[in-house]
């Protein structure tokens, strides 16, 4: 195949996909319409059929249509079902008060589905396809928080939990290894909680993931700050902690943007705060971020976390940090391998998003 033919084929693929999806939706619409007509005919044949195919049976294809049809097709299908409901009702010999009330409820359900379809028309997808898009976006965020394969002697893990119990949160983690001897990790806390901050976290995680792999460590947080300022979001600020490891020597650099400081647990059990200070992202132009640098020795552990892990109502954040350190000591001494998961489960506020990254050198 020539280069020109290959280019033309790539251009045609999106159009072929759209035609295929439209074909599937058309077939689905025909099947649902046929089922609706069949139910209407059976309902009006004889009174003996009413027990098996009552007027309520017309709600089955209506509900299936709300899940399977797109926002452009669904309103017309709702009108079609409601018209057949009128036909089926008019063919009943007698209609009791209870039946009349039931018909009113069916029309109300149809109106609700119609209003929902108009609302979803803004998004362009509906039903199961819309849900699959959100699931894909959620999985992409979680994949960015997964730790890359590290060389022997290094271990890294992360855990994320949202305030609402869903997989969408205002906290997120981006971790990558742009070259084999480096590990870049950033933990971000977007303003807001749960689903309220989920949309901003979706957009920001993709942008920061691109910046993290493309820029030197010293330029990452300034670039992230500039990006947030350009968005001009009403609640556009975020806190972050960024750590860059040289996996060959163990040297690392930590920079913080209004975020709780990273914690270092040394092999002898002592603790230190790695506070590379800097302001919150998205508020001030042209800011600089101080760097805390050292070398991670064998047996040392670095903890990155969000404020949901150490901050609770009626408790000072310093006490929360001490409790996090004490819990980590207990788990390390007990030989626990999944530190981040156990810490998120045991500590922090269940009313706030929580994220923990644990990086250890053996």
UniProtKB/TrEMBL annotation:
List the keywords (alphabetical).
Hydrolase, Membrane, Transmembrane, Transmembrane helix
Q: What class of enzyme is it?
A: hydrolase
Q: Where is the PPM-type phosphatase domain?
A: 150-361
Q: Which residues cross the membrane?
A: 21-42, 74-91, 103-120
UniProt keyword Repeat present: no
Example GO molecular function: protein serine/threonine phosphatase activity
EC assignment: the record states 3.1.3.16
At the top level, the lineage of the source is: Bacteria
Q: Which InterPro entries match?
A: Bact_Sigma-Reg, PPM-type-like_dom_sf, PPM-type_phosphatase-like_dom
SMART domains named among the record's database cross-references? PP2C_SIG
Q: Which PANTHER family does the entry link to?
A: STAGE II SPORULATION PROTEIN E, STAGE II SPORULATION PROTEIN E-RELATED
- Protein name as annotated: PP2C family protein-serine/threonine phosphatase
Instruction: State the organism named in the record.
Output: Nocardioides eburneus
């Amino acid at each position: 195949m020539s280069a020109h033919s290959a280019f033309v084929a790539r251009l045609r693929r999106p159009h072929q996909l759209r035609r295929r999806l439209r074909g599937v939706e058309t077939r689905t619409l025909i099947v649902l319409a046929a089922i609706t007509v069949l139910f209407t005919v059976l309902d009006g044949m004889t009174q003996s059929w009413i027990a098996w195919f009552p007027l309520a049976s017309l709600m089955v294809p209506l509900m299936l249509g709300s899940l399977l049809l797109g926002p452009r097709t669904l309103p017309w299908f709702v009108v079609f079902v409601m018209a057949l409901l009128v036909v089926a009702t008019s063919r009943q010999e007698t209609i009791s008060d209870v039946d009349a009330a039931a018909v009113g409820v069916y029309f109300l359900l149809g109106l609700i589905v119609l209003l929902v379809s108009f609302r979803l028309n803004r998004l362009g997808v509906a039903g199961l396809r819309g849900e699959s898009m959100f699931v894909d976006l959620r999985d992409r965020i979680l994949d960015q928080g997964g730790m890359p394969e590290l060389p022997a002697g290094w271990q890294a893990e992360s855990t994320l939990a949202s305030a609402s119990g869903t997989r969408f949160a205002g906290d997120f983690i981006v971790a990558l290894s742009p070259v084999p001897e480096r590990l870049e990790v950033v933990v971000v806390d977007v303003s807001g909680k749960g689903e309220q901050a989920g949309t901003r976290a979706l957009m920001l995680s993709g942008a920061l993931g691109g910046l993290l792999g493309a820029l030197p460590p010293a330029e990452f947080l300034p670039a992230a700050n500039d990006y947030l300022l350009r968005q001009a979001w009403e609640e556009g600020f975020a806190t972050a902690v960024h750590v860059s490891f040289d996996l060959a020597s163990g040297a690392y650099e930590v920079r913080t943007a209004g975020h709780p400081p990273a914690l270092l647990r040394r092999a002898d059990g002592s603790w230190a705060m790695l506070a590379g200070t800097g302001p919150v992202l998205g508020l001030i132009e042209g800011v600089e971020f101080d760097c805390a640098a050292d070398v991670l020795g064998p047996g040392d552990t670095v903890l990155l976390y969000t404020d949901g892990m150490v901050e609770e109502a009626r408790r000072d954040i310093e006490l929360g940090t001490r409790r996090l350190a004490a819990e980590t000591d207990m788990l390390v001494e007990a030989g626990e391998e999944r530190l981040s998961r156990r810490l998120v489960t045991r500590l922090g506020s269940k009313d706030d998003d929580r994220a923990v990254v644990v990086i250890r050198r053996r």
